[in-house]
Amino acid sequence: MVGETTTTLGVAFTKPDWKAMLVRGLTAAAIGVAVMVWPDITLKILVILVGLWALIDGIGLLVAAFRAPSGAAKGLFGVLGVLALVAAFFCIFRPGVAASTVIWVIGVWLLIRGVFELFAAFGGALGMSRWLAFVSAAVDLVLGILFVTHPDKSATGLSWLFGLFILIGGALLVWLAFVARKGPSDVVAGSVIEG
Questions:
Q1: DSSP secondary structure string, the chain?
Q2: 18-21 contacts, C-beta under 8 A, 24 or more apart
Q3: Nearest to 159 by CA among 46, 13, 56
Q4: C-alpha closest to that of 128 among 173, 167, 82
Q5: Number of C-alpha atoms within 13 angstroms, CB side, residue 133?
Q6: Per-residue pLDDT tens over the stretch 22-50
Q7: Fewer CB within 10 A of the terminal residue: the chain, N end or C end?
């Protein structure tokens, strides 16, 4: 398809895709900054903010699943999207649940997401470079382990770390959006163009 750029990992970016990715990234970055600036925010508000981020991320991942060219990419994005939506539902509609339970559930979600990203980095099923997939998986796994092993710690420290995670994830999405926007000749090193 003319005007479509396919990265080395097989995910096509088109003009609408980069715009959706940019919105997801900017939303995540804004929420990450808000969480870091006000670490003493009540857990209920934090959980709702995280739920909104997970909802936007989940919808974006499901859109990516429908547009992905390969079955492996469709399945990976689909599973990650459903997991994000489950986490979003839990956070938005059950914010009164004990803080340790919410933090534990988010930790499990991050661990599962990190494992999928790690396998995708080896198998080449994500729409980003291999090293970026490894970095993303490492951040998810470290934070997931932290959340699962210390769910009863103060929300202030964990909210700052989670805010940083969301900010980094948002920045990566913004970067990928601008890379995809540049067009076929300027896409990530090693990518190929289908004409």
A1: -TT-EE-TTS-EE-HHHHHHHHHHHHHHHHHHHHHHH-TT--HHHHHHHHHHHHHHHHHHHHHHHHH-SSHHHHHHHHHHHHHHHHHHHHHHH-TTS-HHHHHHHHHHHHHHHHHHHHHHHHHT-SSS-HHHHHHHHHHHHHHHHHHHH-TTS-HHHHHHHHHHHHHHHHHHHHHHHHHHHH-GGGSSTT-EE--
A2: 18/177, 18/178, 18/180, 18/181, 19/177, 20/60, 20/63, 21/60, 21/173, 21/174, 21/176, 21/177, 21/180
A3: 46
A4: 173
A5: 18
A6: 888 888 888 888 877 776 665 677 778 88
A7: C
Over the stretch 86-99, which tens digit does the pLDDT of each residue have?
888 878 887 766 56
Neighbouring residues of 6: CB distance < 8 A, sequence distance ≥ 6:
12, 13, 69, 191, 192, 193, 194
